[in-house]
Amino acid sequence: MSNYGGQSEISVADPVEGICVVAVACEIDLLSARTLQQVLARELGAGHQAVLVDLSECEFMGSSGLAALVASRGRAKTGGTMFALAGMNRSVARSIEATGLEPLFDIYPGADDAAAALRGRKR
Predict the structure, then answer these.
(1) CA 107 to mean position of chain CA atoms
(2) Which residues 6+ apart lie within 8 Å of 118 measured at CB?
(3) How much is the pTM?
(4) H helices within 19-110, ranges in order?
(5) Beta partners for 2?
(6) Rounded to an integer, what distance in angstroms lies between the CA atom of residue 31 and that of residue 51?
(7) pLDDT digits (tens, 9 = 90+) for 68-120
(8) Does domain 10-113 have CATH number 3.50.50.60?
(9) Where are the domains of the chain?
């Protein structure tokens, strides 16, 4: 597992069955969104079958974080990589819903649910 960011806590688990899990355990604001976008860009370019963003420990998602997710989703679609979000708390879910971004993402209640669903799908 790799950790990124000074204050931010964004980690990448070793891929299992082609699924890379990027776990976010911090607030995603203007300062940490750049790190998130860089990590997601690197993992999306690594040839994984899917990239799963585990937001179960993310307390806040600002507009910069939402922009990073949307950009990453576009990169995933272009590259043929499945991209999903999991484990959103109420605050993060409301940010996505309020901006009308919910239909853009495959969203699962938890990382295990998402991984199981992604394993059953083909790119």
Answers:
(1) 10
(2) 19, 49, 50, 52, 82, 84
(3) 0.91
(4) 30-44, 63-79, 90-98
(5) 12
(6) 22
(7) 999 999 999 999 999 999 999 999 999 999 999 999 999 999 999 999 999 88
(8) no
(9) 10-113
